[in-house]
Amino acid sequence: RAKADGRNLARFFDPSMQDAASRRASLEAAMREGLALGQFQLFCQPQFDCRGRLVGAEVLLRWQRDGELVSPAHFIAFAEESGLILPLGEHVLKESCRALARWHRDPTLARLKLAVNVSIHQMRDPDFSGMVAGILDDTAAPAERLCLELTESVFAENMEEITQRMHEIRAQGIYFSLDDFGTGYSSLAYLNRFPLAALKIDRSFVREVGTQPGSAPIVEAIIALGRKLKLEIVAEGVENEDQRNFLVRGGCSSMQGFLLGAPLPMAEFEHVYSAAGIGHA
Ligand code: C2E
Ligand code: MG
Ligand code: MG
Ligand code: MG
Fold first, then answer.
1. What is the per-residue DSSP string for 140-199?
2. Does ligand 1 come within 6 angstroms of the Cβ of 148?
3. What is the pTM of this model?
C-alpha cells in the first residue's frame, strides 16, 4: 500500500524538490489549503437492496484540485500519516450529517442510510465520540441513518479502546459496518466483540465471482457468516449482471457498484435520487 501511495503522490510534487521532507511539507500545505477552500468534496454512491430498491448511499471523498478530481486512494494514507485525517474526517462527518438533515425533509431521501468511511486514526482520537455527538447536535441529523465504516485495522491494536469508543458512538444511535471484509487482518474470534451492524464484502471478491472458481465459495461463506452473526451483508464493486444475480441468489442484503450507480457529487446525487430534487434543482 505504501508503495502505491508513494507513486501516486509523486505527481503532486515539484520535481525540483528533492528531499522527501519538503515534498511532504508541500503536500500537507496543499491539503490544508484545500480543506480551507472547500476543495474536499463529498460524492455519494447509491446502494440498493436485492429487489433493486434504493436503500442508502456511501460517501466517497474527492479532492477537487486545480480542475482535477483526485481519488482518496491518492491522499487518505498521507492524511493518516500527517494527522490531517482528523480535520479532514471531521469535515466529511459534518457535511454527511448536514446531508442527512436535508434528506430528512425529503419524502424519497428521508428513509436512506448514509455510510461514511472512518479511519482507525479517528477512532483512536479520545475526542472522537464527543466530536460526533457535537455534530449530531449541531446538524440535527437522524443518528440512526448514519453508519460508520471501519476497516479490519480495528483488529490490529488497542481493541479494548476501540471497542469502548464504538460502544459510546453506538449509544448515540449510530451504526457500524466492517469495510473491505476479508482483505485485512481479521480475527473471526473477535468479530462479535464489536457492535457491528453490517459486513461489506470487498470488491476484489465480487470481481472474481464468475471468473475465479475459488471466489464464489468465499463470498457464500462471508454471507453465511454474516447471517449467523445477524449482520447485514453489503457487497461493493458490482459491475455486471452475473455478479448481481449471484449476490441476490446468495442472500446479500444490499449492494453498490458501477452497474447500479456511480458515485456522484452530493448535489447531483440528491437531484437524481430525490423525486422532489430538494433545493438543488
Ligand atoms: P471503499 O470504502 O471500499 O469504497 C469503495 C470504492 O470502490 C470507492 O473508491 C468507489 O468509488 C469504488 N467503486 C464503487 N463501485 C465500484 C465498481 O463497480 N467497480 C470498481 N472498480 N470500483 C467501484 P474510491 O472512491 O476511490 O475510494 C477508495 C477508498 O478510499 C474507499 O474504499 C475508502 O476506504 C477510502 N475513502 C473514501 N472516502 C473516504 C473518507 O471520507 N474517509 C476515509 N477515511 N476514507 C475514505
Ligand atoms: Mg467504504
Ligand atoms: Mg469498501
Ligand atoms: Mg474496498
1. T--GGGEEEEE-GGGGTS-HHHHHHHHHHHHTTT-EEEEEEETSS---HHHHTTS--SEE
2. no
3. 0.92
